[in-house]
Amino acid sequence: MINVYFKIDYQNKEMVRGKVEMKRIENATSRQVTFSKRRNGVMKKAYELSVLCDAQVALIIFSQKGRLFQFSSSSMQKTIDRYCQYTKETLININTFEVEQHMEQLKEETANIAKKIEILEISKRKLLGQGIGSCSMNELQEIDNQLERSLKIIRARKSQLFKDEIQRLKERERLLREENARLSEKCGGVRPAALELPVDLTRPAQLTEKDKCSRMETDLNIGLPDIGWS
User: Are 132 and 126 spatial neighbours (Cβ–Cβ below 8 Å)?
Assistant: First the structure.
């Protein structure tokens, strides 16, 4: 911020405008002198404002050392109470306005959602074949297309579920085979003996023609064969 002040050029006897950079004055003496001058000037302006404009003015200043300087066109406490009451009412009004604005937004969103729900309900009834008496040919064609797309999606999903189930069963079969092989290896590869039918020793065994031939071929005879001489 730049503060503008006027200085007098005594040679030309004219007031020349100068500029002062707004920053903290480092020199303590200069800072105190400037504070006193500016404080008196501000209080004078506050007094003039209250008199000329019939305004209620209150001014509170604390110096660097904590000293209080104040001016009030009326009672300082009454002015402060009035300020607190005004800020409170303003805050309430602001909050009320924000709440009302938020409520309006919620009402608008609720109305939009209700319209969307109504449109969806109408579309659902049409897909179920209800309320299509007033539909045009284009609307019926659009409903037909929607049903076809829905059927394709449903069939694709159904096929995918079948594939997943088949894959799951194959994996389960593989695990069972591995478990069976592991158990067989753990048991030493022993297989259960084949069941044999009981043999009745009191009854002669009956041989088939094949068994008889096999037996005849394996018989061993010692001596000369019996040859009939005529």
Answer: yes
CA atoms of 46 and 63, how far apart (whole Å): 18
Is residue 53 within 8 Å of residue 35, measured between CB atoms? Answer: no
Q: How far apart are CA 122 and CA 19, in angstroms?
A: 75
Supply 28's token pair. 């303590």
Burial of 39 (0-12, 13-18, 19+ CB in 10 A): middle
Distances (CA, A) of 92 to 16, 88, 97, 98, 191: 50, 6, 8, 10, 92
Q: Report the alpha-carbon distance of residue 5 to residue 23 in Å, rounded.
A: 15
Amino acid letter, 173: E
Token representation of residue 224: 């000369």
Question: What are residue 57's phi and psi, to 5 degrees?
Answer: -120, 135
Q: Give the tens place of pLDDT for each residue, 21-54.
A: 788 888 989 999 999 999 999 999 999 999 999 9
Residues 6+ apart with CB under 8 A from 62: 68, 69
Q: What is the largest CA-CA distance in the chain?
A: 188
Distances (CA, A) of 41 to 6, 45, 46, 66, 79: 15, 6, 9, 20, 21
For the entire predicted model, the pTM comes to 0.37
pLDDT tens digits along 63-110: 988 899 999 988 899 999 988 988 888 888 888 888 888 888 888 999
